[in-house]
Structure formats: C-alpha cells, structure tokens
Amino acid sequence: MPDQDRFIICNPAARRSRGQTVADDLRGLLRTRGMSAEVSTASDWAHASRMAREAAEQGYAQVVAAGGDGTVNAVANGLVGTRSALGVLPLGTGNVLAYNLGVATLPAALAALQADRRLPMDLGLVGSRYFVAVAGVGLDAQISRSVEDFWKQSIGRLAFLTEGLNQLVRDKPHLFHINMEGEDCTVVEEELWSALLCNVPEHTWRLPLARQATLNDGWLQLILFRDVNAWRWTFGLGDALFRTGDLNQVPGVTVHRVRKARITTDPPWTWEADGDAGGETPVEAEVRPGALQVIAGKIPTA
After folding, report:
1. Is the distance from CB of 204 to CB of 240 less than 8 angstroms?
2. pTM as predicted
C-alpha cells in the first residue's frame, strides 16, 4: 500500500518527547521506518471524528488514531460506513483496542500498518455513539466522568483507582431495569453497581473481563455487577482473572450474550463509551456486525 494513502489523526494530549509535539514525534518515527503519512492534530472528539470522515471521503486507505481510547473511538465513529480501515498507534493510558488487536506497542503498531492486515470488526452502538471495545452504565461511567484529564495524564491508572474508591464510598447501587435480546430474551430488575457491554475479550490493563468475546462474532457480552460482600467478590474475581475462570463464577456477577439491550436506572445514572462519558439513562445499546475494517497485528488469545 502506498504510504501516501495513510492519514494519521493525533491527540495533542497524548504522550510526547520533551520539546516536541505528538505530530513531530510521529513524523520522526515514520521516517526511521521508511514510512510516510499525512499527520494532523485534532482539537477534540468531534474534530477527530470529522477529520476521519473527511479523510475517508478523500480516499485514504488507512485512517489512523494516534492517542488513547477516546481518540480511537472518535476516529472509529467517523469511519463507520466508509471503505477506509482504522489503524491504531497506542499513545494513551488504557489502549484497550490496541491490546486486543495485538498492536499494544508502537513498533508492533507501525509494523501492522505496513503489512495492512485487515479484519472486519463489529461495533457496539450505545445511545448515538459507536464503541469499539467497552461501554458501561453506572459506576465505571461515573468514574470516567469524574476523573480530570490532568490526573489521567499525570498518574494514569492510579487516577482511575483512586476515583473508583471515592465513588464506592460516596455512592450506592442503583435500581436497574434491563430488557435484553440475545440467546434468550431476559428482563433484569435489581440493584447493580454497573452494567458493562464488551465487544472485545480484554478490558483496561489487559483484564480479561469477557473471555467469550471476539471482535467479529456478532454479539456483545453484557456483564452485570451486583452489590455483594467485598471479600467474596475480590477472591472470586482473582480466581477468574488469574486461573482462567469465568466471570459467571464470581459472586454477584453474571454474563449475558446479547444483540440488544435497553437499560433504565432509578435514579438516572451516567453511561460511557470507550471511557468517555456520554449521557444518562435510559439508554439503548446494540451490536453492529462487521461495521468497520481494522488493521491488526497478531491477535492475542485469551
């Protein structure tokens, strides 16, 4: 593939070298590999999404998100319905999709762009926003909304852990009403901390929350977290994560394979898509099979 068919969209807040912009860093990296690309910087989510759509309309074969999960989400939303493939250069804190595509390091990501290995990928749709990896309603979304960008950049995952503990102290489970369409039609009405919709096997920091999920199986994994004894939950989660167990074995957790779900909470609660806070409940979610082409390295196995 000719290098001029590659367009890279940067998040200006992503990690960078001292005295250089992210775009300058990337141009230097590309030169060391004998690669080139059009490199541009987005000012915010909407700008990145619009730039991705315009790049696809101009005929770029690869449109690459250089940043974290929010930048990847913005570019993916801009590419839905186009023929351009989404590439990822992991420069964020979580880099969830990058891990699931086998491009978690910059050398692996650049090699994948050169090889142009494409895979069809499902997308989730929550409210009016597509997500590539994980969407959530409840505690996780409230954490995403509350953590300030400064602390994300300064202390990374510690900022999320600290805010999570704060939320657990300040908040309490909400009453969820969930209508789901999947392997069976189920209605859930009970108090929950969170409802996660997973499109990929691994969540932030490579936590295998949905071992059954794959990028293109036409399903979402809906994971429900109830309020249970903290010690039982911690030991059960540790067993699932480190002994290749199933989250269904964790006290207070159930996993459902769905194509659609409508989620209402009392009182209303925040929802998020790929780590960026969206609106509040009620909200509807569904899977869009094969909605996007992505560029992958070696796909990790669960």
Report:
1. no
2. 0.85
